[in-house]
């Protein structure tokens, strides 16, 4: 089966399984070809379909990059009433579900977790060990380890993020620098940009929710794009959003 026929067949099947998906057939094809095949667009894909293959990339960074580049095309999800913007992670799961569905992995409890687990990079991460059902030590990825999917995903991301900067770089200084520079470029004062740097660092170091790290841009493939400021701007609304995140995640230490 050629790739164009495969894409259309699996998108139709996916739409039959998830009739509530708020994408037209054309939109679904566009998003799916970018996610599953890594194409720049459906036009690029259909003009040279044999140049692409349906797969999961080798790196976690590439998984996140493909999902983030499709965000503007995804259907909106209900806004989180307590922390507007926390729904961004739900959008990532929506995209991951479209991706996994074309690869016929539509029963995974977390499609994003399934994609990350199936990268080549996952084998090289220093993931924690847990007691399995048989009483023996087992990897976090072992099916015998009973851990809720979101908790698994957070542990993997936590251990992966330092690797993104390269071997031996554990403090994520480059990431915090990039996020601070992004805030300054978007118009924040040095003091407020320093606050943004601090809250991003706290989100990671203190084990705040994946929703917080996703919203702040800590998990962005390119932090310099400033996804947080695309949502809130660079003024009082952005500062209020930061403080709301801190109050929600760690109210005892909110600044």
Structure description:
The chain is an all-alpha fold and 255 residues long. The chain has two domains: 3-121, no CATH class; 171-253. The chain has helices spanning 3-17, 25-36, 42-47, 60-70, 88-102, 111-117, 149-164, 173-185, 190-205, 210-216, 227-232, 236-249, and strands at 129-131, 137-139. It has a two-stranded antiparallel sheet. Helix 1 (3-17) packs across helix 2 (25-36), helix 2 packs across helix 5 and helix 5 (88-102) crosses helix 6. It is globular, with a radius of gyration of 19 Å. The model has no long low-confidence stretch (mean pLDDT 90).
Radius of gyration over C-alpha positions, nearest whole angstrom: 19 Å
What helical percentage do the residues reach? 40-55%
Ranges with pLDDT <50 over ≥5 residues? none
Main β-sheet, in a few words?
2 strands, antiparallel
Supply the number of helical segments: 12
Number of domains: 2
* Structural class estimated from helices and strands: mainly alpha
What is the N-to-C order of secondary-structure elements (H for helix, E for strand)? HHHHHHEEHHHHHH
Strand order of the largest sheet: 1-2
Query: Span between N and C termini?
Result: 58 Å
Mean residue pLDDT: 90
Shape: globular
């Amino acid at each position: 089966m050629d790739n164009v026929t495969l894409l259309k067949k699996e998108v139709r099947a996916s739409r039959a399984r998830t009739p509530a998906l708020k994408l037209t057939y054309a939109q679904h094809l566009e998003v799916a070809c970018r996610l599953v095949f890594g194409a720049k667009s459906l036009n690029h894909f259909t003009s040279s379909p044999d140049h692409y293959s349906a797969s999961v990339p080798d790196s976690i960074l590439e998984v996140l990059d493909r999902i983030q580049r499709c965000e503007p095309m995804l259907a909106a999800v209900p806004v989180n009433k307590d922390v507007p913007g926390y729904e961004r992670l739900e959008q990532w799961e929506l995209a991951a579900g479209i991706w996994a569905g074309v690869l016929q992995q539509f029963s995974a409890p977390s499609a994003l977790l399934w994609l990350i687990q199936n990268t080549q990079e996952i084998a090289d991460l220093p993931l924690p060990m847990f007691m399995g059902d048989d009483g023996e030590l087992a990897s976090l990825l072992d099916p015998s380890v009973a851990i809720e999917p979101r908790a698994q995903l957070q542990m993997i991301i936590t251990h992966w993020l330092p690797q993104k900067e390269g071997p031996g770089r554990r403090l994520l200084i480059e990431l915090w620098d990039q996020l601070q520079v992004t805030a300054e470029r978007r118009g924040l004062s040095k003091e407020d940009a320093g606050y943004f740097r601090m809250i991003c660092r706290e989100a990671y170091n203190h084990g705040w929710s994946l929703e917080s790290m996703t919203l702040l841009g800590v998990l962005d493939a390119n932090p310099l794009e400033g996804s947080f400021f695309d949502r809130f701007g660079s003024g009082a609304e952005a500062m209020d959003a930061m403080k709301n995140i801190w109050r929600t995640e760690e109210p005892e230490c909110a600044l």
